[in-house]
Each structure stands twice: as structure tokens, then as C-alpha cells.
Amino acid sequence: MNHTSQPPSATCTSCATTQRLSLIIHNVRYLAHNRHFCTNCLLKNHHGLFCPICFQVYNDSPPPHQRLMCLRCPSIAHRSCALPFSTTTANAGSVPVFLCPTCADHKFSYFNISAADRISRTVDDKSFKVLAAASQIAADSMNKGAAAARFEAERRAVEAAVARKRAKEAMEELASIQAKEEEENSCCVVDLNLDARLNVTEE
Ligand SMILES: [Zn+2]
Ligand SMILES: [Zn+2]
Ligand SMILES: [Zn+2]
């Protein structure tokens, strides 16, 4: 991780916090665009890629019997991590009901750095895990994005060639229409009154 390479003025696309306030703004490839996300917004926009309790980033999501999915969002937690935070409802049998931290509390923030920590630039254990998860998700997205970007560039080159061809055809068509119109106009030049009348009715 090389955070010093980030421009100091980087701002979160989602919540507009600045690098100075959040410590870190990540470059992310999100929905086919390069975005800047603060740690909190990055995690909130990538539910399902990490456990919201222990902050392990999944290579593959845990097998069904080892995971609990949030009732309201795509977040997936390790069953063992989520059980202490889940409730079992009688009517749903013994299936534990889990709400991820953000769905349980809308004001929840994954990454809170106290003013004192911000000044001393220290990060506690939990915040460090959060930061590491966010950085890994950002890095993964950029790697995937790089492959997608190459594909996109090739696709655009093909599209550009097609567009140029279409534009050329359209120009040729326009030229031939203009030539025809000029030809027709030159036939009608003698009847100025007719032209004038046509213009009136057209308006
Ligand atoms: Zn943000
Ligand atoms: Zn976990
Ligand atoms: Zn949730």
C-alpha cells in the first residue's frame, strides 16, 4: 500500500469527505468508472465482498452453511462472526436473522478515526482491519478494471472505426441529397412566385 501517492486533494465521490479528514481515499473501479471512495463509502458500496464483522475479504463467498446473509442488503457475514449479532425468530424456525451493522444502524460508519487518532495518525486494530479490507477491495477492483479497460479500449477502437465509416456514408448521402436539391431548385428558379407561395404554406 502506498498511500502517499494519492493526491492530497482527493475527495470521496460518495460523501465528499476529503483525504485529510478520512486519512485515505481509495481509487476504485466501480460500475465501469474510476471513482474515489473513502474507506467507509467503499465498504458500504461493496457489501457481499467481505465479512462486515471480522473484515475478511472473500476470494469466494463462504459456503451456505458457514454464512449468514443480511436481511436487507447483499452483505454476507461468516456465520460464526454474525451469530452473536443475530436474532432467532420463532416463526422462522431456528434460522437466525442477521442485520449487517449498516442496516442495523443507518448512522453506522465502518471507519471512525477520532480527532486524536487523526492528529497522531495512529489506527487501532479494528480500524486497521477495515482499512486493509477496503484497500484490498480497491486493489482488486482496479486489477479487474485494468483488464476491463483494455477490453473497453479495443471495443471503442472498433466502434470508432464503425462510426467513422457511418459518418462518411452519411456525409456522402447528405452531399447527394444536396446535389439533388440544387438540381431541383435550379429547375424551379424561373417560377419565383411558386417558390414564395410554397414558403408561405410551409410556415
Ligand atoms: Zn465517503
Ligand atoms: Zn467474519
Ligand atoms: Zn445489510
UniProtKB/TrEMBL annotation:
Keyword Isomerase belongs to the record: no
Source organism of this protein record: Lupinus angustifolius
Keywords from the UniProt entry: Coiled coil, Metal-binding, Zinc, Zinc-finger
Single GO MF descriptor: zinc ion binding
SUPFAM superfamilies on file: FYVE/PHD zinc finger
Residues forming coiled coils: 148-184
Domain of life: Eukaryota
Full protein name: Uncharacterized protein
